[in-house]
Amino acid sequence: MIVIPAIDLIDGRPVRLAEGDYSRKTQYGISALDAAKRFEDGGLTHLHLVDLDGAAGRGNNLAVLDELASKTALKIDFGGGIRSLESMRSALDAGAWKVNVGSAAVKHKDEVLQWNKKYPDRIILSSDARDGEVKVSGWAEGTGLSLIPFLSDYLSDGIGTAVVTDISKDGMLRGPSFELYEKIINTLPSLCLIASGGVSSISDLERLSALGLHGAIVGKAYYEGFVTIEEMRELECLQNA
Predict the structure, then answer these.
(1) Is 77 a catalytic residue?
(2) What share of the chain is helix, strand, coil (3-state, %, to 5)?
(3) pTM above 0.70?
(4) Among residues 51, 53, 77, 128, which one is catalytic?
(5) Domain map (residue ranges) of the chain
(6) From start to end of 177-233, where are the E strands?
(7) 2-240, what's its fold?
(8) Rounded distance, CA 82 to CA 79, Å?
(9) Dist. CA 228–CA 18, nearest whole Å
(10) Residue 160: helix, strand or coil by DSSP?
(11) What is the tens place of the pLDDT at every residue in 134-193?
């Protein structure tokens, strides 16, 4: 299992939200580049970069993506505001390794499948859910879609990697949705599943790894001192030994 540190951006600065609520924002006294360099220097290889301004439709943080991609060797998956082929191309041109597609995957499936044909294996399905329902537009809009059938349809159509966030867990430091992830893995064993939201300790990561996840994203737990870079790297090394 890959351990993937996260940087969420508002106005170019790292923040964390609680349950996706923009009014419940915590800012951290570190630049995105400094945070990324710490991850790289600590031996981590991936980064989950989220443009919350882009997700909310109020600008973008592509300049930060470009800076991190040009000044580190991290494999950056970038999300937030990827709603057109042009925006996907802009993110890739700015240095994204892969892009996370959320709202567009719900509203414009045929287009997203065309993007996948043009840029194969560069799309990660970003699936955010509350009570089993897929949410979009910065987690503010319901869709009426059930999560697992939504993932299954895209898997059948050739997009086999998904970040799944249980919104109720995100930023709360109360543990991930283990039962949800186990259910997804049991139902869709060929899906490369990445967990996001709720990690509060290294034991949470160990338990996710034991379930067979492809990756796990760590955000607030790192910034608030519950998990260290050394612990994240050590967990990866032990798994690969």
Answers:
(1) no
(2) 40, 30, 30
(3) yes
(4) 128
(5) 2-240
(6) 192-196, 215-218
(7) TIM Barrel (3.20.20)
(8) 7
(9) 21
(10) coil
(11) 988 655 677 889 999 999 999 999 999 999 998 887 666 789 999 999 999 999 999 999
